[in-house]
Amino acid sequence: MTSGGLSHLDAAGHAVMVDVSAKPDTRREAVAHGLIKMRPETLAMILSGQMPKGDVLATARIAGIMAAKKTSDLIPLCHPLAISSVTVDLVPAAAGQGVEITARVRTTGPTGVEMEALTAASVAALTLYDMCKAVERDMEICQIHVIHKSGGASGTYNRATGA
């Protein structure tokens, strides 16, 4: 059981989508972060526009945004949401060791957007891998996690502070 008595299990223990119809609409936001590690030479090719498959960062950004909008189609029991905003930022990681991904999703509704932010970051990372694998196959997708969430009954969470 989760807080407020909401559960993905019915009285018989079967999986169900949680009924959130009694919850009030509130402004909600979630931010997820991820990293795809790669060789500095691969990153240099991305940044200089020399990847054989084109503008890798622009394609990964669009893929992440599209994925956030389709989260309920990908994650069982996840509510379809009217998302008001999705951004996916991709920046070189420290010391040229890869690309950092930050996905921010907003909505006003009865349930949060953590899954949408995580999906956006994950699909952006997978797209980077797909578009760069001809150059480097041993890239590593890692550290995908929620770093911020606000709105709803559970309030605000910031990973840096744990609150």
UniProtKB/TrEMBL annotation:
Catalyzes the conversion of (8S)-3',8-cyclo-7,8-dihydroguanosine 5'-triphosphate to cyclic pyranopterin monophosphate (cPMP). Substrate binds at residues 77-79, 115-116. Keywords: Lyase, Molybdenum cofactor biosynthesis. One of its GO terms (biological process) is Mo-molybdopterin cofactor biosynthetic process. Residues 17-152 form the Molybdopterin cofactor biosynthesis C (MoaC) domain. NCBIfam families: moaC (TIGR00581), PRK09364.1 (NF006870). Pathway: Cofactor biosynthesis; molybdopterin biosynthesis. InterPro entries: MoaC (IPR023045), MoaC_bact/euk (IPR047594), MoaC_sf (IPR036522), MoCo_biosynth_MoaA/MoaC (IPR050105), Mopterin_CF_biosynth-C_dom (IPR002820). The active site is at 130. One of its GO terms (molecular function) is cyclic pyranopterin monophosphate synthase activity. This is Cyclic pyranopterin monophosphate synthase. HAMAP family: MoaC_B. Its EC number is 4.6.1.17. Belongs to the MoaC family.
